[in-house]
Write a structure and sequence with these properties.
Length: 221
């Protein structure tokens, strides 16, 4: 299986998320500049869109690592040889979990059968840890692409986790992102999706999706 369909699927799903945001903004009577511009319904919608986008990013990262280990081809048609110990998705997932847990190169013999026990694939810190230890084919190329995506992936992960587990600590983690954006004070984590990225002039969420899409394209090349 080529890596290109993996990127295409994520790209299509990101486009759907961007379409929902465009509709959301079109229905707003004013430009978003403060926490007062969000209703409860707005926040519920945005939680769902953010969660969907984060899951798509995680699915992309997982699929790229798994297929790279099982043997694949880049988007330009270059063959990627399989890792000699990667017998199945479960074996790759098992090796990833053990690579995350210990600094030693992992064994590949034990599979993971429950998906909920797998690593957080979209976490770029996790990827930076496990790819070298697993000796994933083209690990240095993947690491470079995922490293470029780090800031956007971490922003989405931080806001998404705070929305799913809202408390004073997760809210503080979201507030910690504010120095990188033109920000307003928030009362709910998803409001931070509409902080402005200075380098693009776009909202954080749309800027992050575009950045992830671009760096994901580099990963499969």
């Amino acid at each position: 299986m080529s890596l290109l369909p993996i990127w295409t699927l994520m790209s299509v799903q990101f486009d759907k998320c961007e379409s929902e945001i465009a509709t959301f903004l079109a229905n707003k009577s004013t430009t978003i500049t403060s926490a007062r511009d969000f209703s409860l319904t707005d926040e519920c919608l945005l939680e769902g869109v953010l969660s969907r986008a984060w899951q798509e990013w995680g699915n992309f990262c997982r699929s790229v690592v798994v297929q790279s280990c099982l043997g694949t081809a880049t988007s330009s048609g270059v063959a990627v040889p399989a890792h000699p110990e990667a017998l199945s998705e479960g074996h790759v997932a098992g090796a990833a979990k053990r690579a995350k847990a210990t600094p030693a190169p992992p064994t590949w013999r034990k599979q993971i059968t429950l998906l909920r026990n797998e690593v957080t694939w979209g976490d770029t810190d996790t990827l930076a840890t496990i790819l070298p230890l697993m000796a994933v084919p083209r690990a240095s190329h993947l690491l470079a692409a995922f490293s470029q995506a780090h800031a956007s992936a971490k922003a989405m992960q931080t806001i998404r986790n705070a929305a799913a587990h809202t408390n004073h600590q997760t809210l503080q983690e979201v507030a910690g992102l504010s120095s990188k954006y033109l920000a307003f004070q928030t009362t709910h984590p998803v409001q931070a999706l509409f902080w402005t990225a200075p380098h693009s002039g776009d909202y954080l969420f749309r800027d992050a999706l575009a950045d992830l899409k671009d760096n994901a394209s580099d990963a499969i090349t």
